[in-house]
Write a structure and sequence with these properties.
single chain, Rossmann fold, N-(1-d-carboxylethyl)-l-norvaline Dehydrogenase, domain 2, 11 helices, 8 strands, globular
Length: 289
């Protein structure tokens, strides 16, 4: 890239801010639009989607779900031209991602899925992985931009494939969190100190990356300043179960996981870090931060 890129970011929540920090550290200029407000991260604020499209060739979505992404696309489309390229980090319905790709493609606008495997904190450190879905020309066009985000980028297949694989990833990592929460609770009921139990387990075959990422939060009940919100993972689990049903596949562990997440949300923990699933074993409406 001969000149520093100007990147438009639609959605400036936890993941959006992490992306902005990576882009600005790499020398890019970042413009942001979010109806909920844009704060910090070196982001220049746009008053509207049309302003953002006028300022930026590269546009990234970081949105709550694919329904919102579709609505944004409908509003943004009149302001886009073939010079624009759209990448979408939203975890959503693969069919809706495919519909967006068709809509944008009809107007000769390149679209790429770029699903993030990892928390906002890991992405901010450049340690996350991107699952990419799209055609080869679009991969090549986006690669110098996405290289500013992280080193690990895996092409999964055409649009829709990355969203499907992201659900596989989130299913497994979510169950790891639930297993860790239950294991620490079980250790505590048997008289072991959870902190000591965690330290021992990290040295055994039972260890997973989740222990390093979420174990301390669970032991200390430190769920504020989330890396990823519990409510977002509940949304993902609902998507997994829907897709499983669509394909005639039972996901019994995810059914149980959904029940646990619903209990945690009922305790008022939806906006806390997803490690707050541990609270379903020791209910408290005032988790320690």
């Amino acid at each position: 890239m001969k000149q520093p890129p100007t990147i438009g970011l639609i959605g400036c929540g936890l993941m959006g801010k992490a992306m902005a920090s990576r882009f600005t550290a790499g020398g890019a200029q970042v413009w942001g639009y979010d109806p909920q407000g844009v704060e910090g991260g070196g982001i220049e604020v746009c008053a509207s989607l049309s302003d953002l499209a006028g300022a930026c060739e590269w546009i990234l979505y970081s949105l709550p779900n694919s329904k919102v992404a579709l609505e944004v696309t409908d509003e943004l489309l009149p302001h886009l031209t073939p010079k624009h390229a759209v990448a979408d980090t939203t975890t959503g319905q693969p069919q809706e991602m495919e519909a967006m790709a068709r809509t944008l493609g009809d107007h000769h606008i390149a679209y790429l899925e770029a699903n993030v495997a990892g928390s906002s904190e890991l992405l901010a450190q450049g340690k996350a992985t991107l699952f990419l879905g799209g055609d080869q020309a679009t991969f090549g066009r986006w690669d110098p931009i996405l290289a500013l985000l992280c080193e690990h980028r895996r092409v999964i297949g055409p649009v829709g494939a990355a969203s499907r694989f992201k659900l596989v990833h989130n299913l497994m990592i979510g169950l790891h969190r639930a297993a860790l929460a239950e294991g620490l609770h079980f250790a505590s009921t048997l008289g072991f100190d959870p902190k000591e139990a965690l330290a021992i387990l990290k040295q055994t075959p039972a260890c997973s990356e989740v222990m390093h990422l979420k174990g301390k939060r669970m032991v200390e009940r430190a769920y504020e300043q989330p890396q990823a919100r519990l409510s977002q993972h509940l949304k993902d689990v609902e998507l997994m179960l829907q897709m499983g049903s669509d394909h005639g596949v039972e996901l019994p562990l995810s059914q149980v996981h959904r029940t646990l997440l619903l209990k945690a949300q009922a305790l008022g923990l939806g906006e806390f870090d997803n490690s707050a699933i541990a609270e379903v074993y020791r209910p408290s409406k005032d988790p320690k931060g």
